[in-house]
Design brief:
This protein is mainly alpha-helical. The protein has a domain of 63 residues: Cytochrome Bc1 Complex, Chain D, domain 2 (Orthogonal Bundle), CATH 1.10.760. The protein is built from five helices and no strands.
């Protein structure tokens, strides 16, 4: 199911909402400071921007397991250099802490007459 989510995401079938507080910055202007603070920010920045800008990271929110599986998916699907060992742990830990799943909002309106 998780790999299906990433495949749908890559195919553009699943929209990842842009956050209102996600600044729009061109790749030339990006520095590690654009990412959330935390241990592993620099490693994550320099490893990830080799292939894409940080907007993709900043608007995502996954569990640790999903971030970890995403590393394998990017290697298999997009030819990313395999991320292994201590560097992988550092980056996955950082992403899971800095960009966890977002809390789902409930419906804006609940019909008091609807039966449960």
């Amino acid at each position: 199911m998780v790999k299906g989510l990433f495949a749908a995401l890559a195919a553009g079938l699943v929209a990842v909402p842009l956050l209102a507080n996600t600044p729009s910055i061109s790749a030339e202007e990006e520095t590690p400071d654009i990412l959330a603070p935390g241990e592993g920010r620099d490693e994550t920045f320099y490893y990830c921007v080799a292939c894409h800008n940080t907007a993709l990271i900043r608007r995502s929110g996954f569990s640790r397991q999903q971030w970890d599986e995403l590393m394998d998916w990017m290697t298999e699907r997009h030819g990313m250099n395999p991320l292994e060992g201590e560097l992988r742990e550092t980056i996955v830990n950082y992403l899971a802490q800095a960009y966890p799943p977002r809390r789902q909002r409930g419906p804006a309106f609940t019909n008091p007459f609807a039966s449960n």
